[in-house]
Specification:
By secondary structure, the protein is an alpha+beta fold. The chain has two domains: 4-227, P-loop containing nucleotide triphosphate hydrolases (Rossmann fold, 3-Layer(aba) Sandwich); 238-346, Nucleic acid-binding proteins (OB fold (Dihydrolipoamide Acetyltransferase, E2P)). Helices cover 26% and strands 31% of the residues. The protein is built from nine helices and 18 strands. It has helices at residues 43-51, 93-103, 108-122, 137-149, 167-184, 195-201, 219-224, 229-234, 245-250, and strands spanning 4-12, 18-27, 32-36, 58-63, 66-67, 78-81, 155-159, 187-192, 204-209, 212-217, 241-244, 264-267, 281-293, 297-304, 310-316, 326-332, 337-340, 345-346. Helix 2 (93-103) packs across helix 3, helix 2 (93-103) runs parallel beside helix 4 and helix 3 packs across helix 4. It is elongated and about 75 Å long. The two termini are 41 Å apart. The mean pLDDT is 94. The structure holds adenosine-5'-diphosphate and magnesium ion (MG). Keywords: ATP-binding, Cell inner membrane, Cell membrane, Membrane, Nucleotide-binding, Sugar transport, Translocase, Transport. One of its GO terms (biological process) is carbohydrate transport. Belongs to the ABC transporter superfamily. GO terms for molecular function: ABC-type transporter activity; ATP binding; ATP hydrolysis activity.
């Protein structure tokens, strides 16, 4: 088991690309941390630096109270699971699992025990004599996880392990990874560009943008109180609506409760209500542009009077209004997210 501490980590690739710029993060023993951010923000680079597959240009990396900056990957006691599985095609599943352990000189009975245990945990016991090409994508992903499990490492690193699976299998494997991680209690660093995967897996989430940390927090903290415009736009689906303060002022709907410096107001699609709540709220009128019924919930796209940008509203169940109808939306003042465009940050008042 291990705590992982990143202190002001930097990565500049030969050629000058600054992929990671000053990342500090303290990961507790047993914690499941998810690194999330758009493509190219430095997630894989950071993970590979922890794995030892990429040199560290600056800063200090410790695993379990040991500085490991220059330690070989094999000496870091961690196991990594990749998106493309990276299985040996000519070896059986059993040998794929056993290979690393044999190289480490682990005794045969111990290898047998670990392989059988991992196979049982991942329900791949029936495929141990097959080659990877005779397995489905989901089964291959399980073998890749099994190969990490048998090493009994002090930390797991996952780089978008579910990206190659179809939507249904992705959800199923997500649940299994979470259960497995909780059961084993192994410190894990999980990379994804999928905010829903991130929200559902993480003890704490780290939102990365252009090689820097935007915000660190529990899924709830990031959803309820995004500290930057980037996080506000990235976490939550459909994305948070942004309405200019000037628009609210012109409509006589600008609440006096928002802190000075607010020029952009965020409103979650769930917080835009069709009937006025008892609590203090603001009201905006517009027209229904498009209805998107999706069974348990529906999205309503609304064009506000005098505003070009469509606003997204999420309601439970199916909509009862018609496209083109007039509509009034009510937003509790407590649900407003005040931002400042110039700083890109939440305004605290
Ligand atoms: N081997 C490399 N050499 C030079 N630049 C690289 C290399 N690998 C990645 N990069 C660049 O570093 C940045 C971060 O890449 P990466 O860590 O792969 O992002 P992510 O995993 O978040 O998509 C990108 O601008 C990418 O083009
Ligand atoms: Mg990547």
């Amino acid at each position: 088991m291990a705590r992982i501490v990143m202190d002001d980590l930097h990565k500049v690739y030969p050629g000058g690309v600054k992929a990671v710029t000053g990342i500090s993060l303290d990961i507790a023993d047993g914690e499941m941390i998810v690194l999330v951010g758009p493509s190219g923000c430095g997630k894989s680079t950071l993970l590979r630096m922890v794995a030892g597959l990429e040199t560290i240009t600056g800063g200090t990396l410790s695993i379990g109270d040991r500085v490991v900056n220059t330690l070989e990957p094999a000496d870091r006691d961690i196991a990594m699971v990749f998106q493309n599985y990276a299985l040996y095609p000519h070896m059986t599943v059993y040998n794929n699992l056993a290979y690393g352990l044999r190289n480490q000189g682990v005794a045969k009975p111990e290898i047998e025990r670990r392989v059988q245990e991992a196979a049982a945990m991942l329900q791949i016991g029936d495929y141990l004599q097959r080659k990877p090409r005779a397995l489905s994508g989901g089964q291959r992903q399980r073998v890749a996880m099994g190969r990490a499990l048998v090493r009994e490492p002090s930390a797991f690193l996952f780089d978008e392990p579910l990206s190659n699976l179809d939507a249904k299998l992705r959800v199923q494997m997500r649940v299994e990874i979470r259960q497995l991680q909780k059961r084993l209690g192994t410190t894990s660093l999980y990379v994804t560009h999928d905010q829903l995967e991130a929200l559902t897996l993480a003890d704490r989430l780290v939102v990365l943008n252009a090689g820097r940390i935007e915000q660190v927090g529990t899924p709830m903290e990031l959803y309820q109180r995004p500290e930057t415009l980037f996080v506000a736009g990235f976490i939550g689906s459909p994305a948070m609506n942004m309405i200019e303060m000037g628009y609210l002022r012109d409509r006589g709907a600008a609440p006096s409760t928002l802190p000075a410096g607010t020029d952009l107001v965020g409103m979650r699609p769930d917080d835009m209500l069709l009937s006025a709540p008892a609590e203090p709220h603001l009201s905006l009128s517009g027209r229904v542009m498009l209805l998107e019924p999706a069974g348990a919930e529906s999205h309503i796209y609304v064009s506000l009077d005098g505003n070009d940008q469509p606003i997204t509203v999420r309601i439970p169940g199916l909509p009862t209004m018609q496209e083109g109808a007039a509509i009034t939306l009510h937003v509790p003042l407590g649900a407003l997210h005040p931002f400042n465009t110039a700083s890109g940050r939440r305004v605290s008042g």
